[in-house]
């Protein structure tokens, strides 16, 4: 593999150009110097390998902060670092994944019970699923936005997300904003739902923060 421009690197790694620039701003990779004679910045094989490392770590569920710590251990000048340091971080991530799996199992059990009780035919007033939802009988992993005073949900339509790594970038950007209490991001639907304290941040400020990370963002109306 020869040295490549940012566009070629993006194709090889499977990300957008703006994602690479975001990694540069986050100091996860170094931005190459521009040639004195002019032309495009050239990325080395080592940088491409580092990008593959970042992407794979994201796919395994590591946050950008955690990836930065792993990269610090990976660098040759990391003092007194050995395999146990990496193993400890991987074990912590594994415990986190197991906890999320347990939560999903509980949600699945609740949904399965609702489906089993639903007759699957007849008028909606006979639907046991609607009845259970109205009675708050379905387990939830966290309170809904409407349950918190002064909170509202903002929906953003986001363009340029291609993978789970993009989701992680957008989620990180949103969660860093003052007044944001939580969010969910999907590259498949191209949408983010953000729980905010409306006295601290506006929908346009959220959209602008996402645009600053290299993605397009438009405000969507919340259905009544």
Automatic annotation (TrEMBL):
CDD domains: HMA, HTH_MerR1
GO terms classed as biological process: response to mercury ion
Keyword Metal-binding appears in the UniProt entry: yes
Keyword Transcription attributed: yes
Domain HTH merR-type residue range list: 1-73
GO molecular function: DNA binding; DNA-binding transcription factor activity; mercury ion binding
UniProt cross-references to Pfam families, sorted A to Z: HMA (PF00403), MerR_1 (PF13411)
Domain HMA: 152-218
Keywords, ordered alphabetically: DNA-binding, Mercuric resistance, Mercury, Metal-binding, Transcription, Transcription regulation
PROSITE patterns linked: HMA_2, HTH_MERR_2
Gene3D superfamilies registered for this protein in UniProt: 1.10.1660.10, 3.30.70.100
InterPro entries recorded: DNA-bd_dom_put_sf (IPR009061), HMA_dom (IPR006121), HMA_dom_sf (IPR036163), MerP/CopZ (IPR001802), MerR (IPR011794), MerR-type_HTH_dom (IPR000551), MerR_fam (IPR047057)
Top-rank lineage group of the source organism: Bacteria
Purpose of the protein: Mediates the mercuric-dependent induction of mercury resistance operon. In the absence of mercury MerR represses transcription by binding tightly to the mer operator region; when mercury is present the dimeric complex binds a single ion and becomes a potent transcriptional activator, while remaining bound to the mer site.
PANTHER family for the chain: HEAVY METAL-DEPENDENT TRANSCRIPTIONAL REGULATOR HI_0293-RELATED (PTHR30204:SF94), REDOX-CYCLING DRUG-SENSING TRANSCRIPTIONAL ACTIVATOR SOXR (PTHR30204)
Name listed for the protein in its UniProt record: Mercuric resistance operon regulatory protein
């Amino acid at each position: 593999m020869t040295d490549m421009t940012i566009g070629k690197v993006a194709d090889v790694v499977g990300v957008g150009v703006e994602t690479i620039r975001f990694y540069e701003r986050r100091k996860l990779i170094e931005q190459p110097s521009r040639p004195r004679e002019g032309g495009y910045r050239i990325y080395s094989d080592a940088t491409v390998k580092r990008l593959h490392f970042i992407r794979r770590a994201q796919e395994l569920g590591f946050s950008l902060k955690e990836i930065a710590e792993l990269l610090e251990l990976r660098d040759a000048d990391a003092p007194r670092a050995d395999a146990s340091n990496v193993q400890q971080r991987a074990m912590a991530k594994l415990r986190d994944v197991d906890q999320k799996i347990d939560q999903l199992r509980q949600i699945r059990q609740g949904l399965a019970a609702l489906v089993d009780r639903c007759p699957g035919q007849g008028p909606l007033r006979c639907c046991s699923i609607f009845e259970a939802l109205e009675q708050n009988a379905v387990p939830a992993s966290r309170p809904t936005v409407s349950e918190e005073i002064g909170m509202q949900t903002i929906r953003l339509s986001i363009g340029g997300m291609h993978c789970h790594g993009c989701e992680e970038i957008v989620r990180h950007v949103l969660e860093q904003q003052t007044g944001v209490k939580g969010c969910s991001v999907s590259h498949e639907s191209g949408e983010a739902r953000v729980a905010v304290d409306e006295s601290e941040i506006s929908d346009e400020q959220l959209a602008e923060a996402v645009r600053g990370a290299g993605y397009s963002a438009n405000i969507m109306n919340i259905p009544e």
